[in-house]
Design brief:
The chain is α/β, with parallel strands linked by helices. It is built from seven helices and six strands; from the N terminus they run E-H-H-H-H-E-E-E-H-E-E-H-H. The protein has a single domain, classed as Lambda Exonuclease, Chain A, CATH 3.90.320.10. Helix content is 36%, strand content 20%. Strands 1, 2, 3, 4, 5 and 6 form a six-stranded mixed β-sheet that branches.
């Protein structure tokens, strides 16, 4: 695969798969990162997670996968979708199947399933892989390294349509520069953008 000097996260005019993932987690994050260009406040836990993620390993799950080929840190780009991304691993099976794999330093949902925004992220990678390799991606894998849990998830056409829909919503936020005013269900205490969502910040004259 052709490598470019420009990182997939720096393509001007393109949305990244990480942006799609972030919108699925909370639309407000897209506004802070893509419109205001605010960087997330990094906590000690996040730093540790980043260190762990920078050295992802598929060794614990290799016996189960038995791949014919493993591609690491695969950069993908779609001129049609205006979407770019870099997936941790792409596995090519002996049957010619392409499987995107993400390694996460975190835990799955309480009931053991994948987090929704992670599934959307992998559906977006599937779109890129399908266009690049002229194939159909039927499944993906998430390895939650802290929990030592491997989750295989089927990717349906509905999942890929949802990823496309979210991509369109991200593009709309960037083009209109409109704050989505999302109220995410759940605990926001661990979010590095929490302080920017506090009452008064977005109402200040500086950001009108």
């Amino acid at each position: 695969m052709k490598r470019r000097s420009t990182s997939s996260e720096e393509e001007p005019g393109y949305i990244t798969v990480v942006d799609v993932r972030d919108y699925a987690y909370c639309p407000n994050i897209v506004y802070f990162t893509k419109v205001l260009h605010i960087k997330e406040r990094v906590t000690e836990a996040m730093e540790y997670g980043k260190e762990q993620h920078e050295k992802p390993s598929l060794a614990p799950i290799m016996p189960r996968l038995k791949p014919a080929k493993i591609m690491e840190a695969v950069e993908l780009r779609s001129n049609k979708l205006k979407l770019v991304g870099k997936v941790d691993y792409v596995i090519l099976t002996r049957h010619g199947e392409y499987i995107p794999v993400e390694v996460k330093w975190s835990d799955p949902e309480v009931r053991g399933g994948p987090k929704r925004h992670h599934k959307i992220q992998l559906a977006a990678y599937a779109l890129l892989l399908e266009e690049h390799f002229k194939t159909t991606v039927k499944r993906a894998l998430i390895y939650y390294s802290r929990a030592h849990r491997l989750i295989e998830l089927p990717l349906s056409n509905a999942d890929k349509r949802e990823a496309k829909e979210i991509l369109g919503k991200v593009q709309k936020i960037v083009e209109s520069e409109t704050f989505p005013k999302a109220r995410r269900k759940g605990n926001c205490n661990t979010c590095g953008y929490r302080s920017f969502c506090q009452e008064g910040f977005m109402e200040s004259s500086l950001y009108k």
